[in-house]
Amino acid sequence: MVAAAGRASPAGTPIRVAVAGYRGKVGVEIVRGVEAAPDMEFVGGVEVGDDLGAFLHSRHPDALVDFTHPSAALRNALAAVAAGCRPVVGTTGLPEVGVQQLEDACRDAGVGGIVAPNFSVGAVVMMHLAEIAAPYFTAAEVIEMHHPTKADAPSGTALATARRIGARQKFQYSRTEKLTLAGVRGGEEAGVGVHSVRLPGLVADQEILFGLAGQTLTITHRTTSREAFVPGVLLAVRRVTAEPRFYRALDQLLGLG
Ligand code: NAP
Q: Distance from the CA of 170 to the center of ligand 1, in angstroms?
């Protein structure tokens, strides 16, 4: 069955935004950002165990922002689409088949949507700049630095960065002859060294170091709080409620991908 097409917000009417995971670490920042946005209205939050179908039916959000858990995000997003509401998914770890299912559902319903592994505008621009720099250097190493409760290492952004710059240049990875401490050189992906630092006080930082005879170039992105994800999410909400297009990354939305 084809779901009802989403309503575009008439000019001057605030975009009605709901947030799944609104009490989570990122969710609270998104709610704050939506409440502060002059063109948006926060219409409510959904937590574990809430009846999302009933919520969507009663609050009629134009967009549902999801920062929950991979086990819940796809179900939430598909329920949103079925209600004519645009999904803005920040939750990471969705399988490709799930993202494709969501894209198909959005297309069939005639609504926009986005699944983006990184909503930080600075991080997306950092990767873009690194791709531009890559062909001019012979070696590169990525150092990502995160809070100690981060579940995985390296970060998805570090891995994506290594793959993207490795696709632009055949880097020479320096293998050290004698290692006196296991793991001290970090990992290697696409000829790029990758290192993970975990430290209290950090949120999410990354440095990309490029080397060439007699010089280095460093591109650094620093995150001081999870507010870093707000501008990208608000941009995405505005875009997907204005046009029925599906995005798989913030890069595409910023015109960088
Ligand atoms: P968090 O602090 O654990 O917050 C997740 C929230 O979602 C919690 O409040 C949790 O409730 C709630 N939740 C879980 N299942 C739910 C469901 N079925 N329905 C509604 N709410 C549900 O995690 P976080 O640090 O905010 O991160 C959330 C997700 O965003 C993760 O997947 C993370 O990797 C991702 N993330 C993405 C970006 C990006 O730029 N794309 C940036 C940062 C984080 P309980 O506490 O009751 O379980």
A: 37
Q: For residue 67, how far is its CA from the centre of ligand 1 (angstroms)?
A: 4
Amino acid at residue number 3? A
At residue 12 the predicted structure's pLDDT band, cuts being 50, 70 and 90, is confident
Give 114-183 as a 3 state SS string: EECCCCCHHHHHHHHHHHHHHHHCCEEEEEEEECCCCCCCCCHHHHHHHHHHHHHCCCCCCCCCCCCCCC
**What confidence tier does 9 reach under pLDDT thresholds 50, 70, 90?**
low
Asked whether residue 1 is assigned to any structural domain, the reply reads no
Does 20 contact ligand 1 (Cβ within 6 A)?
A: yes
Residue 70 CA: which ligand 1 atom is closest? 32
Examine the domain organization and report whether 168 and 107 are in the same domain.
no
Q: What percent of the chain has pLDDT over 70?
A: 96
Q: Flag whether 5 is in a domain.
A: no
Domain annotation covers residue 102: yes
- Asked if residue 238 and residue 112 are part of one domain, the reply reads yes
Residue among 26, 219, 231, 224 nearest 137 (CA): 219
Residue located nearest, by CA, to atom 3 of ligand 1: 24
Catalytic residues: 146, 150
Assess whether the C-beta atom of 55 lies below 6 angstroms from ligand 1: no
Element counts in the chain: helices (H) and strands (E)? 8, 11
Please tell me whether residues 163 and 148 are part of one structural domain.
Answer: yes
Q: How far, in Å, is the centroid of ligand 1 from the Cα of 68?
A: 3
Question: Computed from CA positions of residues 185, 189, 194, 196, in that sequence, does the dihedral angle turn out positive or negative?
Answer: negative
232 Cβ below 6 A of ligand 1: no
